[in-house]
Amino acid sequence: MQRELNDFFGHLSNSDYSIHKVTKGAFTQARSKLNHQAFIELSQSSVDYFYKNTPYLLWDKHRLLACDGSTIMLPNSKNIKAEFKPASFGRNGTCERSVATISLFYDVLNLVTLNAKIDSFNVSEITLFKTQLDEITFKPDDILLLDRGYPSIGLLYELHHRNIGFCVRLKDNWWNEVNSMLKAGESDKIVTFILPKKDKALQQIYSGKTDSVTVRISVIELEDGTKEILCTSLLDRKNYTMEDLKQLYHLRWGIEEAYKLFKVRADMDSFSGMTALSVKQDFYAGVFAMNLCAMVSFPIEQKVREESAKANLKYIKTVNKTNAFSLIKESMIGVFIKKKVTVFLKTVDKILLKTTEAIRPNRSYPRNHKPKKPKSMNYKIM
Question: What are the tens digits of pLDDT across the range 285-322?
Fold first, then answer.
């Protein structure tokens, strides 16, 4: 932290060297007075501005949103444990670790995070997801992409009455209608689900005249022979073929890339403080930085893709996201404090145009699930 502060004040004074002007103790005291809500409001303000003033990308006429949850290791301190209840791990549950559940609501085409949540490990990603549903202002033609852990008849009913389109993956061994389709050799079918007793209260909440929801279930066969069961509100088979649905759901992978950028490239596992407040500050500041990166890169991203398409290249090119994020992070002082916005934008444009990478479709790599050890606060990167 002291090295970061010295470097910060060195840049601030246009010095060629770091300057020891503020101690890490003074910084810690100052940040304890900063409400993490400030970063949430900054991010929300930038998101609102982006969608009002930018010709953002759509799939057909739809904005594609994905939600997914994950976990993140937290520093081990009493203050953090008091707010983020520690979870028990190990063979006998004797090892306590501070872990948080996080959830991102993400625009997979425009790379914008509409909403982010962080909470204790005992709070499920479904709980965070439903909270986010109430906080986001959806557009009429939005389509929500969800993985197998989210769908239920109650959720499908709720999305339908909120006028939120969806394309979600189902577990093939859990849904009776899916098992019946597979046995009968059917691949595309309109199905009506009746609300189970446990979800009957939804009918009163949404003033629904019926206790059912009609969806389309499609069995998509992938290149490796496995079958993907998709459930969608897109009932028109002429306008939305099974191949369209396959491509649509594949775009959900964008949120996996967002997590890679957020947790690995932005190094979110390395928190800068030992308090719950510092965890929230780092988390929401990281979300804001990701959005800033996406928005500043947006016009260059479109230019790179258009030029590579016109050049008839084998692969469409895209902006290198890791390089873009690093560039935005390094330019914060110049933009927000020195107000050199025009110079910054011209510099970003030139650098991002020169640092592109090819999009190679249909690549797949098996996931290697290994337990991660928490990073020690005593051994930080230089």
Answer: 999 999 998 998 888 888 887 887 777 777 778 888 88
Indicate the SS3 state at residue 313.
Answer: coil
Give the chain's count of helices (H) and strands (E). Answer: 14, 12
Distance of alpha carbon 13 from alpha carbon 11, whole angstroms: 5
| Residue 352 vs residues 53, 327, 348: alpha-carbon distances, Å | 22, 9, 6
The DSSP-derived string for 87-144 is EEESTTS-EEE-EEEEEEEEETTTTEEEEEEEEETTS-HHHHHHHHHHHS---TT-EE
pLDDT, tens digit, 9 for 90 and up, residues 142-177:
999 999 999 999 999 999 999 999 999 998 778 888
Structural domain spans, the chain: 1-33
**Confidence (pTM):** 0.88
Residue 206 near residue 161 (C-beta atoms within 8 A): yes
For residue 146, CA distances in Å to 113, 129, 290 come to 15, 11, 21
